[in-house]
């Protein structure tokens, strides 16, 4: 999908915003699940560091176009968009091929797309299990395998998998999500080993609860369901496992992702980095 921002930036200089060289100037980055929330925050931080970004996800076309244009106006780099359904391997393949064909390279992949369903395992719908594994784990396999040829050819690659505290510990009623996120950490380590001599790193970020519009809606729903205050929901329900009793922010996840993709993180690979307020330190 071509937007006005993309059209008017096809010949954008690789040293944007007055000519300064930023950490990711000239890099091309794909962030899946990035039309809102954590993914959009990551895309904005990568763009802030000079990367040409590709957004992916669902949402109203006008809202997505606004975000694309906002990225260009704020950071001087183009933001393309792909509507590829991350549950479909053929759609992922088409997206990667289009990016490499258009940009000539793909340097950074952030696997952020994810879905959730909560139910006891004996009542867990098999179709929900299949969907969660497809989007939260299998999609990352496909984006990685298809982007590595470009990374290997160019002698540079940064892969960041947005896992979860649930990639390190479990909670009841989240069997598919916990299984997928644990699997994502195993995939991260394997890719890190395979890419170690090719200047391709692969790391995972493991957030606890991050404050997003989706989480904010959950707070109101939980408050009504339990007839308790928003403050009680935040402290005693959502953040019960986070010792610092505060949400991580989208900006914190974006900053860490941008650092892992930059030149000063070249020796960090195969790591699972918690951003969970001490949750997994228990």
Keyword list:
282 residues; alpha/beta; seven-stranded parallel sheet; 9 helices; 7 strands
In short:
This protein has 282 residues and is of the alpha/beta class. It contains nine helices and seven strands.
Q: Write out the CATH superfamily name of the largest domain.
A: NAD(P)-binding Rossmann-like Domain
Shape: globular
What is the helix tally? Answer: 9
Number of domains: 2
Q: Catalogue the unreliable spans.
A: 1-18
Assigned CATH class of the largest domain: Alpha Beta
**Largest β-sheet summary:** 7 strands, parallel
- Please identify, by name, the CATH architecture of the largest domain: 3-Layer(aba) Sandwich
In sequence order, what are the helices and strands, one letter per element?
HEHEHEHEHEHEHHHE
Please indicate the percent range of residues in DSSP E strands (runs of 2 or more).
5-15%
Report on the structure:
The longest helix has 29 residues. The chain has 282 residues and is α/β, with parallel strands linked by helices. The N and C termini lie far apart (46 Å). The chain has 9 helices and 7 strands; from the N terminus they run αβαβαβαβαβαβαααβ. The protein folds into 2 domains: 241 residues, Rossmann fold, CATH 3.40.50; 37 residues, no CATH class. Helix 3 links the parallel strand 2 and strand 3. The protein has a 7-stranded parallel sheet, sandwiched between helices. 45% of the residues are buried.
List the helices and strands and how they pair.
Layout: H1 4-7, E1 28-31, H2 37-48, E2 52-56, H3 61-75, E3 79-82, H4 89-103, E4 108-111, H5 126-154, E5 157-162, H6 175-195, E6 200-207, H7 213-226, H8 230-238, H9 250-261, E7 272-275
Parallel strand pairs: 1-2, 1-4, 2-3, 4-5, 5-6, 6-7
């Amino acid at each position: 999908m071509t937007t006005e921002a993309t059209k008017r930036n096809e010949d954008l200089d690789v040293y944007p915003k007055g000519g300064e060289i930023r950490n990711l100037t000239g890099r091309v980055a794909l962030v899946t699940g990035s039309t809102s929330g954590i993914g959009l925050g990551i895309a904005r931080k990568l763009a802030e560091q000079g990367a040409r970004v590709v957004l992916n996800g669902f949402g109203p076309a006008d809202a997505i176009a606004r975000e694309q244009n906002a990225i260009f106006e704020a950071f001087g780099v183009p933001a393309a968009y792909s509507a590829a359904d991350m549950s479909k391997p053929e759609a992922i393949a088409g997206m990667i091929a289009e990016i490499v064909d258009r940009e000539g390279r793909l340097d950074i992949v952030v696997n952020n797309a994810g879905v959730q369903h909560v139910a006891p395992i004996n009542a867990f719908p098999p179709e929900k299990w299949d969907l969660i594994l497809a989007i939260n784990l299998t999609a990352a396999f496909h984006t990685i395998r298809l982007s590595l040829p470009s990374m290997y050819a160019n002698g540079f690659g940064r892969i960041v998998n947005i896992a979860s505290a649930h990639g390190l510990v479990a909670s009841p009623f989240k069997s598919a999500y916990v299984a997928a996120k644990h699997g994502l950490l195993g995939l991260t380590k394997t890719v890190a080993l395979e890419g170690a001599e090719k200047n391709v790193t692969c790391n995972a970020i493991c957030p606890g609860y991050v404050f997003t519009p989706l989480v904010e809606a959950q707070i109101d729903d939980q408050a009504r369901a339990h007839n308790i205050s928003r403050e009680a929901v935040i402290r005693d329900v959502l953040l019960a496992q986070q010792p610092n009793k505060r949400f991580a922010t989208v900006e914190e996840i974006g900053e860490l992702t941008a650092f892992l993709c930059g030149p000063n993180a070249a020796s960090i690979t195969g790591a699972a980095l918690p951003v969970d307020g001490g949750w997994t330190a228990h």
